Amino acid sequence: MSVSVYFSNQIVQVAVGKRGKKGTIQAVYSSVAPEGCIINGIVMDPEVLGNFLNEFWILNNIPKKDVYLVVKSNKIASKNLNVPVLDKKKTFSYITREFSDMQREEEENTIAYTKLKRDNKKKQVEIYAEMAPKEQLREFMNIFANMGVALKGIISAEGSIIGYVKNTMARGNSTFILQVVNGNLVSNILIVEGEFTYYNSVRCFNEVGTPEYLEDLARSLNQLQQFMTTQKITAPIERVLVAGTENADLSNYNYVVSNQGVNAPVELVNAGISDPNLNFQAQRALFAYSGLFDQGIESNFLTNFDAKKEDAKVMDPAMKKRVITIATTLAVMLILFGFFLTKRLIAKSNYDEYHDYNSSPTTMMKVADYEAAVADRDAMQKKYNSINTVVETIDSYPVCTDEVIETIEETARGYADVEILSFDAESGHVAFTAKSKVVGDIYKYIDRLLDEDIFMNVEHTGYTLEEKTNLYNIRVECILAPSVGREEE
Q1: CA 255, CA 271: separation in Å to the nearest integer?
Q2: Burial zone of 374 (CB within 10 Å; 0-12 exposed, 13-18 middle, 19+ buried)
Q3: For residue 308, what pLDDT is reported?
């Protein structure tokens, strides 16, 4: 049993049946995903979409093996190509080169294609080739893997429906349009004389089921007719096959289609649907049902998912330019790396040389000797400074020299007789007595002492009368100025 699941926007459709060249259907399931979780085949919220699908799977008891995803996305690019008859690997490489103008540098893509027609005379094959971003496919694979489903294939909705039409409806030389209605999204496939010619997909903006909605559907058919005129296709459209429209709407839709200039009867799809009881459900889920028709491994994006590009012989110009840019950048980086590495090695060599010199026993001994000498020098300097301080202190002490005594006595001459009692070198105090018959002369003597520069201060006590000598006695203490008496030393 195989499972084909289709989604593009909110509508999710699942067809269960037997997959093969002529797929058969046994059950159809449909639901609506939460709004905004998937838009135009691009997953916006993988967690919400994954939870919804898991619940949907469990609710309907859908098998988890042999599951194929049919996805419609505006990120899948497509082209009609005529390619030479080649083996599979070379055909993929050829298609990859054909899509080189559409590939973005930051994207990694994979290729799939559906065979349409082979021309043995020209040795060519007409294919419908498609390119999808691998990142988008990985996201689908991860969502299903979290459900316990390993996707066996991922197929483009366009390639799938075109292959289905070729296998079931395109017989003989008939010219017709298949219109697949899926909510507000309508897809049209044009078959001219039994061969696929054109595909388009249009979004309807009017509410489903309204007359305006039918007008939108009919206008999309008119666009195909205009395309036929532009391409000078003269074969008339024989019929319009519609999938996804209520049977009751056919008569009204016939009228609307004819008003749009498409003069062909409108019929519901039933081709290839083996079980008549499932006809309506199957044609409503035609994209999912088309996934049960095996178009070959080439139509599966996962077939070529891990394939690597060929060597430089098939490298496109854009890739060559990128390679040259990268190579140039790498060369500049290597040169800069070599330059800075050389500088670093030179600096390392100099460092090692200085380190070895500083670490050698000879240098260590010299450093020890130097440090000992510095310590001795500092000790001697300290002693010298101490001695020098002592000397300076001593030099500041006054000395009671003969000249000082002479000054004391000379100053007293004519006023008093002087007798020096003591001298204190540290404090500079000179103590003496002055005796005079007249008290006033003693004080005149004191005044003369105060006028002398060698004294900082002159102090005296009150006078006394000495009875033996009948002289007035006064004790005088003078403080000598610093360094007095050392000027001549």
Answers
A1: 24
A2: exposed
A3: 52
Start-end of H helices in 402-438: 402-412
DSSP string, 280-309: HHHHHTHHHHHTTB---GGG-TTTTTT---
Query: Is pLDDT of 184 > 70?
Result: yes
Longest distance between any two alpha carbons in the chain, whole Å: 177
Q: 481: which DSSP letter? A: P
pLDDT digits (tens, 9 = 90+) for 421-461: 888 877 788 888 888 888 888 888 888 888 888 788 888 87
Q: Which residue has the tokens 């103008």?
A: 101
Cβ density class 188-209: b for 16+ within 10 Å, e for less? bbbbbeeebbbbebbebeeeee
What is the residue type of 421?
A: L
The burial of 354, by beta-carbon neighbours within 10 Å (0-12 exposed, 13-18 middle, 19 or more buried), is given as: exposed
Q: Are strands 176-182 and 185-192 parallel, antiparallel or unpaired?
A: antiparallel
| 441 exposure class (CB count in 10 Å sphere: 0-12, 13-18, 19+) | middle
Helices 134-145 & 46-60 angle (0-180, nearest 10) = 50
Check: CB of residue 5 under 8 Å from CB of residue 14: yes
Distance CA 272, CA 291 (A): 13
- Neighbouring residues of 416: CB distance < 8 A, sequence distance ≥ 6: 434, 435, 436, 441, 442, 445
Residue 345 neighbours by CB under 8 Å, 6+ apart: none
Q: Give the integer Cα–Cα distance in Å for 388 and 404.
A: 27
pTM (2 decimals)? 0.61
SS (H, E, C) 360-377: CHHHHHHHHHHHHHHHHH
Q: Token match 């004819």: residue?
A: 258
Q: What tokens appear for 164 in the block?
A: 């289905």
**415, 441 contact by CB (below 8 A):** yes
Residue 407 is which amino acid?
T
Tokens of 99: 């899509």
What is the DSSP code string of 155-190? EEHHHHHHHHHHHHT--TT--EEEEEEETTEEEEEE
Q: Residue 473 is inside which H or E element, if any?
A: strand 471-480
Dist CA 295 CA 284 (whole Å): 21
Cα gap 96→212, rounded to integer Å: 42
Beta-carbon neighbour count of residue 403 at 10 Å? 15
DSSP letter (8 states) at residue 72: -
Question: pLDDT tens, 118-158?
Answer: 888 888 999 999 999 999 999 999 999 999 999 999 999 99
CA 272, 277, 278, 284 torsion: positive or negative?
A: positive
What average pLDDT does the structure give for the chain?
Answer: 85
Helical (H) or strand (E) element with 28? strand 24-32
Cα separation of 76 and 131, whole Å? 6
